[in-house]
Specification:
CATH superfamily of the largest domain: Ribonuclease E inhibitor RraA/RraA-like
CATH class of the largest domain: Alpha Beta
Structural class: alpha/beta
Largest sheet: 8 strands, mixed
Radius of gyration: 20 Å
Order of helices and strands: HHEEHHEHEHEEEEEEHHH
CATH architecture of the largest domain: 3-Layer(bba) Sandwich
Number of strands: 10
Number of helices: 9
């Protein structure tokens, strides 16, 4: 699959600050409005919470596993060097997010503290594992945000084999294509093409600001009939108080 990585990275650099202001909930709603569904990776959650208002933005790299069908042979250093998993990890670039389709399997840990450390050193900003992770106590201290479905102490080879990389994969019902922009927070992760990421970065921050204002009004006793969404009168109130328009939110 031919993608212009340099162009995508340049475009991500221009929107990163604004995109980091947008929650996955807001991004999901904006994408839904455009007819883009199934961008959310079902079941993935961070091993260590990022904290309120903290988000991750990066460019997707992909790796795919399938169920092992033959017995796992003796350790072969050369074969390991050439495995899709290791090739991907050893070629990670700063700002990338490793996305692994491990079939959601609960009984094999895809990465542990050593591989997650290598990802961090390579410059990855996060790892998304549609499956299980091992060594999770140590992984939490590595400094690389890791999202996964489950934890399991067993290594990946007991159940799975890495078969390819840098191709489209399934991540909990979301199609992730190499070069997609990943937006993640404590609610999970979303994958989207760069064009849509630019749309979310443009519309998202103003929507976040409006919803904070709405929540404050409801918290003070205002009715959702008036504020959510704002009536014409309440939209005018928002503009008077903030100097901003509700726009198309």
């Amino acid at each position: 699959m031919s993608i212009d990585i340099a162009e995508i990275d340049q475009r991500i650099g221009l929107i990163r600050g604004d995109l980091m202001k947008v929650s996955t909930a807001t991004a999901c709603q904006l994408l839904d409005q455009l007819g883009w569904r199934n961008t959310y990776m079902l079941g993935l959650a961070p091993l260590r919470e990022l904290g309120e208002g903290n988000r991750i933005v990066g460019r997707a790299r992909t790796c795919r596993y399938l169920m092992r069908r033959a017995p796992q042979g003796p350790h072969d250093p050369e074969a390991r060097r050439k495995s899709a998993e290791i090739v991907t990890i050893e070629s990670l670039q700063p700002g990338e997010i490793m996305c692994v389709d491990a079939l959601g399997l609960p009984t094999a840990g895809i990465i542990g503290d050593i591989l997650s450390t290598r990802m961090r050193v390579r410059g990855a900003v996060a790892a998304m594992i549609y499956g299980s992770v091992r060594d999770t106590v140590a992984v939490k201290d590595v400094g690389l945000p890791v999202f996964c479905k489950r934890m399991h102490p067993g290594a990946s080879g007991r159940e799975l084999a890495a078969v390819d990389h840098d191709l489209p994969i399934n991540m909990g019902g979301a199609q992730v294509i190499p070069g997609d922009v990943i937006l993640a927070d404590d609610e999970g992760a979303i994958a989207m093409p760069i064009d849509l990421a630019e749309h979310v970065a443009k519309k998202g921050p103003e929507k976040e600001e409006l919803e904070i204002w709405i929540r404050s009004k409801v918290d003070a006793g205002g009715s959702v009939h008036d504020y959510y969404p704002p009536t014409v009168e309440k939209a005018a109130e928002y503009e008077r108080e903030t100097g901003k328009s509700t726009g198309s939110n």
